[in-house]
Amino acid sequence: MLLDGLPPNANPKQIGAKLNEIANKARTAGDYREIGNLYGFQLLVKTELPKDNSTLERVNRFFITGEGNIKYTYNNGLMAKDPETAAMNFLRALEKLPGFVKQEQEKIAEIPKDLPILQEVVNGTWAKESRLSDLKTELAAVERKIQLSITPETKQDASEQAEKQNEAPKVQESIIRTKGVHSPRGVL
């Protein structure tokens, strides 16, 4: 394990002490910061605030990441206080990888079993598709009938309103003439 700030031949106690120092003092503002490497994997630290923001205490979590940028932790990323145990933190995270690989291989093995069923669903025709098409056509016909039944009434209403407007001045004119009242300018 190579840690920044330590010689390559550092013993586990020195490595653990350096990791505990980083756990106590690092402030990354929520970003991942590289602190070293182990077998070609990057060692990272990230400073997190508690989700409830009730305290100002910051927590430094440690991660190990490889080519796929997938981050692995041991003990939820928290560093042990004992220097020798702290030095083993990243190795224990790597020890979990074979179990993860096995789980993913089992999931991949299940996919070909489901593939024929999924292809049948995707490529098959749905039994009610023709019925849906017929109902859409019927709906369009009903909407057309409704529009046609509404349109003549609208034209009749417009012509009736025009007739009423034409009749209204004649009535007012006859009232004015019969009573002999003079109307103000612009009324007639």
TrEMBL record:
Compositionally skewed regions (Basic and acidic residues) per UniProt? 154-167
Kindly list the GO molecular function terms attached to this UniProt entry: methyltransferase activity
Disordered: region residues? 151-188
Keyword Methyltransferase: yes or no?
yes
What superkingdom heads the lineage?
Bacteria
Could you list this entry's UniProt keywords, alphabetically sorted. Methyltransferase, Transferase
Q: Which GO terms describe its biological process?
A: methylation
What protein name applies here?
A: DNA methylase
List the source organism.
Answer: Sphingobacterium multivorum
